[in-house]
Design brief:
This protein is mostly helical and 126 residues long. It has one domain. 81% of the residues lie in helices and 0% in strands. The protein contains 5 helices and no strands. The protein is globular, with a radius of gyration of 16 Å. The two termini are 17 Å apart. 16% of the residues are buried.
Length: 126
Amino acid sequence: MGAILELLNAFTNFTTVLASFGMILATSSFISGLQMVKGKGRIERKIHRGNGFIAFGIFAVLAISSFVTYGLSLWSVAGWLSGALVITVKLLIVHSRNRRAFKYVSWLGATLISMWLYLVYIHIPL
């Protein structure tokens, strides 16, 4: 019984729940982004944009939480900046006038999902 309670305590940690929620948002944003390519309505676009804003906010909260908990190191700053760079490049491609660049957005969306998988992994306190 003690092992089950310890496992439950590990998965109810605030940062673990926040990272998991960010992963869910990134996945739903990726799926809604693929649906937007097919020319769906405005509501899907607003949901996609809202998912992106909330996921970026969660990303920022996790980064700040990590810096407060573990301090600043070269690797942690480089890791969080590279994650922010992936998000920024995706936004720049989406908002660019060059429509040929859209073929890279799905790759960046998949990279974002991989990034969130890693964030969930590093925030599980086992």
